[in-house]
Amino acid sequence: MARKGSLEAERQAIAKERSALEAREAKLRESEQVAMAELLRKSALGKAPFERVEAFFAALGKLGLDEAEKRLRAS
Prior knowledge:
Number of helices: 4
Shape: elongated
Radius of gyration: 23 Å
Order of helices and strands: HHHH
Number of strands: 0
Mean pLDDT: 93
């Protein structure tokens, strides 16, 4: 039979690993957002007037990403 102390130590080790993984995932999400912003800045959208970009994203939101990709591929 396993000792109660060793089970608790294992739970604590798992919690520590989970916490470290969550921190890595948060850092990755932040890096992805920075990369996405940089990609947008370098793209045609980054060079367009704000009002047009805002309207583009509003239209994209109404269409949905899948439908917009489908239509762009077809054009």
